[in-house]
């Protein structure tokens, strides 16, 4: 544990008593022997509920790995990951899958939508998988906020990149996950479309009360967040509210 | 570019598995056919030669036994030695006991002509005049031993012969049950047939000069060559039939290979675009792909030769081990067949890859620079395709109609092929439609996973259609055969009902034992037994060969016993039904009368004819009451289960008959034999067609496997969003079952239609009014089997899909 991070963590814990997700001693190692790579080393991290957290750092620093571990897509080599008060490190694949569909939403950089489904089918997919029926008012609100009402019957290849990302965002929000993860959600978009998507992400936090974790390279994108985590060489360099 | 091709083959080798399997199986099929036919021919020919051991000259055209005798004299006069190969049928008895009515008696060379003897001695000694040699197997079967006395023939021509030994003479054109010397044969076999006369020690020319023109005189080698050709013509016919099935397998292979290449090359669009970016011309890319196809084809064809050779040898070895009586010789693979099969395999691969290669190499260099990594292949049926399909369907239907009205085979085959091509062309419309229809149900039953399976199955209509096409061919052909065969069988059955109304009968010359019916009922396979009353009556009439005859009066209801509708079941008041054999040479004529005499009292009855009632007469119960004072149980009419083993049932009944001094007969063995022939034929044809189905199923599995590769990110996304591993596997399996099941159902429907057309066109004229018989259970079984095959084909791809890690969906790749 880097000594500089301890007071910040402590401070954050006092400021915001409940965290949506946290890690303790999280370590993830790839490969063995000569080719061994320490993607994450002893990471202690708290993601406060109801915040828009940006994760930044140089390429190869372990941002994606951190997010995979937080989202239950990857199993840590050691350490614990707790989401919504439940320890998910050590869960079996089936448990994890069910946990994911109940608590976690995703927006990826690209290839977010299934090509053979319409926008609406894509949006409702997580609920369908969980066997839950959508809350019609909530769905209408999300669709309205994102401005994709007239695109619901279209397939992904009939939509622009920005529209596709907004559909992906709607999918992430509609199930009201405890945590919404976004890995470089604006990587493929121009500045206008980026601003649109980031604006919606921030609105979802402020107006809809969502917790969002976003991985990004882009300082402009990070500026939309209210919480910032810096990763360097697989370690947390700093974490705390944006000044 | 050569390195690129070689590297591609190495990297993508596993993805070619379907193409490799298809070509290998098809080529192996051809080689196996060659192995089987060569072994069969060798077996036939070896046997043929064995029957002419020692002969130098063969004389044909002798005709009668008398002529043959003169031929022998002529050959002797010309300085040679001659022997006659002849055959006759006569009764044989041992110790006054008749052991066979129609024993086959052949000739064996003796005396000065022993050099022409072809039988080999097993036990005892070769026979001289007054002696007989018995075939070893026959001797064992009938319990005849060396030293026994056998009487051949009856009356004044009867000969008493001592058994001098047993010989090995099992099969071949001159084979018989027992052999006598020529002088003895002239006595018992004066009416027999002469196969040929063989001679040695005399030249062909000398003998030819000494004989009238009408005899054919040939060196034995020439004679054997001609005879072999004639005998093996039948084998060649079978070889051609096998090749028809091999070409069906090849056709299916073409579909599978073309589809494999299409999918594979579509996935490698980025590779090709990159090649184009770095300066490869379109021609270079195309040539690289063709070279790749050539390598795959050559490799698989070689593998096919190996597999076929192994399989052919294995089959022949198994056949000679399992059926020692069947003459099989050594496998001799001909270079023409091997070379032809190999070339065919390579050509099939190349031609199947032609279109996909053109399409695949027609990629813009820019495609490599597009950020989108996912392979988005969307395809729809073009107008041209629909127009072509309509034309093919129209022409095909017209030809089929022509075949029905003209009862000709050629337009049927052409029409069947053309219309089927039309259906295959429509595949991209019809198959996805059918899958959607089924999908409605599946989505309801299996929820999201089911709906995903349907969406995946129809997202690329052309690929879907191409994947199902190969299976469709196999299932259609198999269903067509099954339905056609069932129809033929039903008609044959009806005909047999007329010929063999009674399965089995047990008839006594005296009153039957009371418990006999129960004993018969206890025989496994007996379905029902009907005791029939009767009496013994003397029947006389002009043109009749009868005397004291058992006259039966069946009860009014024998429906569960007698097969089909027969007049003899309800005889008129003064009618008597007699079997065909009861009428002598002048035969039966309408209005004939028969006098029934009991104790000197005469009753005149009208004669009728009945098929298959045995050696009895049948009258109405009232008629019988008028003839005899008391009737008693005289016969049992027996109905046998359709599936019963004919040999077991008749064997058991025969044993019962011997023990009770009654006579067993009936048409069931004949009926069972005909049924067996049809079953064997259907089984063989279906087995041959199954090769094509196996290839098609491998194709389905491979296409699914390739689809799984290109959907890795989708699957990762689904897993990230909460689809469990099991459900993902289910989705893939469901897709496989959907594809195969729809092919199965469509194929079953099409096969039934084609069978109807085939029956109308081919059998319609021969049998007259035939109605199609659809064996629903079997047709459904075929469709279900296709779906199950799809399930199996989906096992590996779905396992593979489920191993995708959910994090892979987020990797920037
Ligand atoms: N599957 C893997 N096998 C081996 N090493 C891996 C694997 N995934 C990631 N790594 C390594 O782990 C380290 C962290 O990777 P990660 O993808 O988390 O970086 P990142 O911060 O997301 O980088 P970028 O900004 O480029 O996306 C890198 O050194 C990477 O090479
Ligand atoms: Mg990353």
From TrEMBL, chain A:
Keywords annotated in UniProt: ATP-binding, Nucleotide-binding, Transport
KW Metal-binding (keyword) present: no
InterPro entries tied to this protein: AAA+_ATPase (IPR003593), ABC_transporter-like_ATP-bd (IPR003439), ABC_transporter-like_CS (IPR017871), ABC_transpr_LolD-like (IPR015854), MacB-like_ATP-bd (IPR017911), P-loop_NTPase (IPR027417)
Domain ABC transporter: 21-242
Top-rank taxon: Bacteria
GO cellular component terms, semicolon-separated: membrane protein complex; plasma membrane
MF terms in GO: ATP binding; ATP hydrolysis activity; transmembrane transporter activity
Record protein name field: ABC transporter ATP-binding protein
TrEMBL record, chain B:
Annotated membrane topology: Multi-pass membrane protein
Main location per the UniProt record: membrane
ABC3 transporter permease C-terminal domain: residues covered: 244-363, 687-806
Transmembrane segments: 12-31, 237-266, 293-316, 336-355, 386-404, 416-443, 464-488, 680-709, 730-756, 776-796
InterPro entries (UniProt xref): ABC3_permease_C, Macrolide_Exporter_MacB
Single Gene Ontology MF annotation: transmembrane transporter activity
GO terms under cellular component: plasma membrane
Protein keywords: Cell membrane, Membrane, Transmembrane, Transmembrane helix
Compartments where located: Cell membrane
Pfam families: FtsX
Keyword Membrane among UniProt keywords: yes
Protein family per UniProt: Belongs to the ABC-4 integral membrane protein family.
Name this protein carries in UniProt: FtsX-like permease family protein
Annotated source species: Nocardioides iriomotensis
């Amino acid at each position: 544990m880097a000594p500089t991070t301890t007071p910040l963590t402590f401070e954050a814990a006092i400021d915001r008593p409940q965290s949506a997700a946290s890690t303790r001693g999280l370590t993830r190692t790839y490969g063995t022997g000569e080719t061994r790579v320490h993607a994450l080393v002893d990471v202690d991290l708290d993601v406060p509920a109801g915040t828009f957290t940006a994760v930044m750092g140089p390429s190869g620093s372990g941002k994606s790995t951190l997010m995979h571990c937080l989202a239950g897509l990857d199993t840590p080599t050691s350490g614990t990951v707790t989401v919504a008060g439940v320890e998910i490190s050590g869960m079996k694949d089936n448990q994890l899958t069910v946990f994911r569909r109940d608590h976690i939403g995703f927006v990826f950089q690209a290839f977010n939508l299934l090509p053979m489904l319409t926008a609406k089918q894509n949006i409702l997919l997580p609920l369908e998988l969980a066997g839950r029926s959508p809350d019609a008012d909530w769905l209408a609100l999300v669709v309205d906020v994102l401005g994709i009402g007239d695109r619901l019957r279209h397939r992904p290849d009939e939509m622009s990149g920005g529209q596709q990302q907004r559909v992906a965002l709607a999918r992430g929000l509609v199930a009201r996950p405890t945590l919404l993860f976004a890995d470089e959600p604006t990587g493929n978009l121009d500045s206008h479309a980026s601003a649109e998507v980031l604006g919606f992400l921030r609105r979802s936090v402020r107006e809809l009360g969502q917790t969002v974790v976003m991985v990004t390279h882009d300082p402009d994108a990070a500026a939309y967040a209210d919480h910032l985590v810096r990763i360097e060489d697989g370690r947390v360099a700093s974490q705390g509210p944006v000044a | 570019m050569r390195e690129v091709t070689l590297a591609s083959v190495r990297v993508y080798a596993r993805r070619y598995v379907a193409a490799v399997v298809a070509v290998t199986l098809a080529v192996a099929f051809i080689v196996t056919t060659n192995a089987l036919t060569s072994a069969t021919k060798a077996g036939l020919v070896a046997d043929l030669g064995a029957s002419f051991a020692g002969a130098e000259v063969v004389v044909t055209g002798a005709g009668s036994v008398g002529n043959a005798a003169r031929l022998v004299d002529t050959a002797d006069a010309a300085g040679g030695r001659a022997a006659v190969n002849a055959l006759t049928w006569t009764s044989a008895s041992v110790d006054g006991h008749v052991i066979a009515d129609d024993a086959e008696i052949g000739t064996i060379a003796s005396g000065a002509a022993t050099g022409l003897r072809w039988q080999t001695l097993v036990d005892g000694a070769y026979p001289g005049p007054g002696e007989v040699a018995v075939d070893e197997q026959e001797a064992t079967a009938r319990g005849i031993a060396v030293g026994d006395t056998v009487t051949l023939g009856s009356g004044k021509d009867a000969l008493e012969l001592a058994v001098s030994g047993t010989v090995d003479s099992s099969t071949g054109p001159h084979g018989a049950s027992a052999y006598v010397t020529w002088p003895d044969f002239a006595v018992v076999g004066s009416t027999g047939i002469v196969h040929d006369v063989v001679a040695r020690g005399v030249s062909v020319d000398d003998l030819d000069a000494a004989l009238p023109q009408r005899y054919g005189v040939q060196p034995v080698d020439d004679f054997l060559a001609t005879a072999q050709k004639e005998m093996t013509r039948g084998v060649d016919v079978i070889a051609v039939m096998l090749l028809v099935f091999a070409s069906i397998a090849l056709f299916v292979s073409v579909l599978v290979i073309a589809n494999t290449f299409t999918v594979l090359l579509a996935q490698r669009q980025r590779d090709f675009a990159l090649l184009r970016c770095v300066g490869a011309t379109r021609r270079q890319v195309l040539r690289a792909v063709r070279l790749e196809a050539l390598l795959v084809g050559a490799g698989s064809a070689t593998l096919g030769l190996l597999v076929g050779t192994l399989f052919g040898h294995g089959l022949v070895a198994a056949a000679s081990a399992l059926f020692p009586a069947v003459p099989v010789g050594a496998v001799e693979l001909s270079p023409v067949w091997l070379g032809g099969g190999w070339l065919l395999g390579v050509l099939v691969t190349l031609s199947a890859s032609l279109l996909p290669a053109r399409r695949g190499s027609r990629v813009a260099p820019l495609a490599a620079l597009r950020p989108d990594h996912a392979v988005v292949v969307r395809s729809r049926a073009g107008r041209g395709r629909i127009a072509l399909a309509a034309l093919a369907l129209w022409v095909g239907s017209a030809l089929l109609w022509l075949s029905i009205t003209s009862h000709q085979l050629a337009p049927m085959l052409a029409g069947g092929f053309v219309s089927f091509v039309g259906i295959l062309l429509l595949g991209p419309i019809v198959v996805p439609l059918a899958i959607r229809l089924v999908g409605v149900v599946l989505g309801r039953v299996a929820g999201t996973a089911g709906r995903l399976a349907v969406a995946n199955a129809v997202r690329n209509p052309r690929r879907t259609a191409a994947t199902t096409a190969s299976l469709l061919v196999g299932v259609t052909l198999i269903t067509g055969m099954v339905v056609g065969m069932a129809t033929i069988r039903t008609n044959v059955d009806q005909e047999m009902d007329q010929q063999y109304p009674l399965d089995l009968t047990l008839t006594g010359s005296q009153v039957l034992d009371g418990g006999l019916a129960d004993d018969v009922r206890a025989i496994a396979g007996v379905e029902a037994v009907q005791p029939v009353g009767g009496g013994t009556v003397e029947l006389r009439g002009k043109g009749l060969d009868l005397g004291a005859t058992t006259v039966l009066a069946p009860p009014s209801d024998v429906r569960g016993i007698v097969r089909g509708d027969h007049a003899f079941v309800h005889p008129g008041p003064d009618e008597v039904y007699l079997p065909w054999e009861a009428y002598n040479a002048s035969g039966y004529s309408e209005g004939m009368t028969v006098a029934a005499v009991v104790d000197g009292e005469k009753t005149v009855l009208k004669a009728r004819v009945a098929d298959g009632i045995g050696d009895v007469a049948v009258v109405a119960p009232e008629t019988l009451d008028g003839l005899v004072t008391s009737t008693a149980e005289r016969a049992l009419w027996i109905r046998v289960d359709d599936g019963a083993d004919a040999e077991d049932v008749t064997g058991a009944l025969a044993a019962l008959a011997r023990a009770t001094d009654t006579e067993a007969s009936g048409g069931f063995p004949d009926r069972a034999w005909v049924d067996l022939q049809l079953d064997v034929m259907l089984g063989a044809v279906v087995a041959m067609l199954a090769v094509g189905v196996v290839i098609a199923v491998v194709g389905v599995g491979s296409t699914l496997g390739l689809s799984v590769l290109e959907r890795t990110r989708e699957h990762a996304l689904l897993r990230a969003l909460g689809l469990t591993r099991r459900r993902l596997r289910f989705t893939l399996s469901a897709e496989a079952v959907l594809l195969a099941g729809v092919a199965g159902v469509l194929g079953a429907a099409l096969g039934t239609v084609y069978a109807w057309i085939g029956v109308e066109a081919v059998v319609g004229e021969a049998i007259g009014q035939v109605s199609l018989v659809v064996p629903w259970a079997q047709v459904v079984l075929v469709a279900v089997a296709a779906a199950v095959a799809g399930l199996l084909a989906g096992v590996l791809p779905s396992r593979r899909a489920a191993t995708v890690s959910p994090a892979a969906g987020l990797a920037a790749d």
